[in-house]
């Protein structure tokens, strides 16, 4: 697993700190302090918590790791918001401040919660064992997070029809919306990976690039030959 080491000091507030520091009006106040030590917090009340962000799994969840292989939680993006999954459950952190990568915001929040004793760590091997495996049969129409309503159902039917035309197959979940990762299999070469439906449907009703995914698939000429829609352009 490729990981990025992020040395971030996580600030712990001692019991004697000012009340407004313990319960900030802005819920994101403490999170933003993880980027650097604040001069108004005594050094004795600060603890460095090095952590690193691992490569995402097939569902787009990034493990946040401390030590050699202890995962304190996972972070993922869903419809522009960033969520964390921990031993305490799932939490929506909302959107990061402008210029701040969402995964770093989420990782810093996890490190803060772990340093405060609010969550516990899980071995990386256990996290890897929990990764969802591709389904052997058809997937549901909608992703579990997508509410079942006429609009989402219609969008899902359109998306699945588009996948069939372009020789893609959903293998893990139903339609997750246009701007969320969807785990797909390329029916031309067997490649599996995350794609956005908003990218596959092309601009202004057009077709997406002949370069289907990393590795080049079977080559532009062969893609055009195997997918009739490209021959009608």
From TrEMBL:
Region (Disordered): 13-55
Domain of life (superkingdom): Bacteria
Compositional bias (Basic and acidic residues): 18-40
Protein name, as recorded: RNase H-like nuclease
Lineage per the UniProt record: Bacteria, Bacillati, Actinomycetota, Actinomycetes, Kitasatosporales
